[in-house]
Hints:
The structure holds two protein chains of two kinds.
Chain A: E1 2-6, H1 16-29, E2 32-35, H2 44-47, H3 52-68, E3 74-76, H4 79-94, H5 96-107, E4 119-121, H6 122-138, E5 147-150, H7 171-178, E6 182-183, H8 197-200, H9 202-218, E7 223-226, H10 229-237, H11 239-246, E8 254-256, H12 257-264, H13 282-285
Parallel strand pairs in A: 1-2, 1-3, 3-4, 5-6, 5-7, 7-8
Helix pairs in contact in A: 1-12, 3-4, 3-5, 4-5, 6-7, 9-11
Chain B: H1 13-23, H2 38-42, H3 53-61, H4 65-70, H5 73-76, H6 82-86, H7 93-106, H8 116-130, H9 135-146, H10 148-163, H11 177-192
Amino acid sequence: MRYLYYPGCSPTTSNKAYDLSARAVGRALGVELVELDDWNCCGATAYMSVRELSSFVISSRNLALAERQGGGDLVTVCSACLTVLNKASRYMAENEDLRRAVSEALATVGLQYSGGIWARHLLDVLVHDVGLESIAEKAVNRLGGLRVAAYYGCQVSRPYGTFDDREFPVSMDRLFSHLGAEVVDFPLKAKCCGGMLVSTNEGIALRLIRDLFACAVENGAQVIATVCPLCHINLEAYQGKINKRFKANYSLPIVYFTQLVGVALGLSRRELGLGMELVPTERVLAGYKLAEP
Amino acid sequence: MATAITRKDLSGLGEVFLRHVQDIPGGEKIKLCIQCGTCSGSCPTSYAMDYTPREIIAALRAGQLAKVLESNTVWLCASCYYCTVRCPSGIKLTDIMYELKRLGIEYGLYVRGGMTPVLYTTFLNIVDRYGRNFETELLARLFLRTDPLKLLGTAPLGLRLLRRRRLPLLPERVRGRNDLAKMLQHVREREAA
């Protein structure tokens, strides 16, 4: 299986272990992720909050590059990139004026986008293209005894719900269950982590993150798995502040879903970027045999 | 048209808003609001808003756009899209919030001291220059411009990330930066025309 791969800004810098582990898991499962050459920022929620047409234009440069580089699905590990790229593709398909305006801008640099390219989350690809059985067959470690809260957050399934339920997604739960983990009940799994509000309205974001921890811990989670770099950093970086503000005592390791799949596949700590996390994972992952680097 | 709207004379703003909302695919559905409050009940931050999402639609329909823009509501929208997927009338409220953010920034109508408009405009400036986001510079400039003490408060987290090779000190740049600039210049000229 071969896909164009859109890594995104955050997974290649502050969430580097996400990109590393995504590529490593792809290699191990026969999913060839070919990086989209010279991709640019999708614009995230910020760009479209300031300039609308420009935000569609910069998103669409990626779609046009994908078309030039062979087309097909554009795989990403970031929920925001997923939604923003698909929003651009979808709105251009639905609005003739927008399509014309974006096409004119692309044409100034010799690019064109004819439509029909869709972003897909790597979780979608693993669960629906590779398949749960086939991943489980390749696993060398059963994740038995590991109590995981599968946290989806918002934009992996909202607004478009391209591969999972918009209110109560289950694909990651099933993935980890197939790998032997004990996936805990987590009613808040698709609730908001606060996103960028953590930088601008900290108190509000901290309260949302606290609620997620309270729910996960009450249901017995030892670790929370994420599918979005922004969710990930919000969960891992503010535990100290939450403990202080809410007189709590949370110290929960946060892993990218790809890292946990990689552990089941027995990949090395280095390939999975383990050791770069802010809350150590050594204790919860101690029982699994991983390849030497 | 854009220059005719000032803080003192906002009479043209409602028209601009309606025109832009009509451009959103499905945007005309804003007329179908039944004031059921599903949006407010689904919103993770409505408890902290001056006006809840339902009240925002009511205020817009009552011609109170300026009041809406000067409230904290639009800046507390985290783009979780719950309101959008749950609205029984199919109103894309998240997109309407984006439009309100854009108008607020364009005409300088937002809560004084709010950090989000600064975050967004700084983000644009960075992406326009490098073609990629550069989080280190984004947060440094955000806090320097709004609350320098917070920059100090962020230092411990910065150090923890730095030690784990997660705080880049230099931006990643795309080769097609000039292409990006050219396309954005084209958009600006088109919008000015």
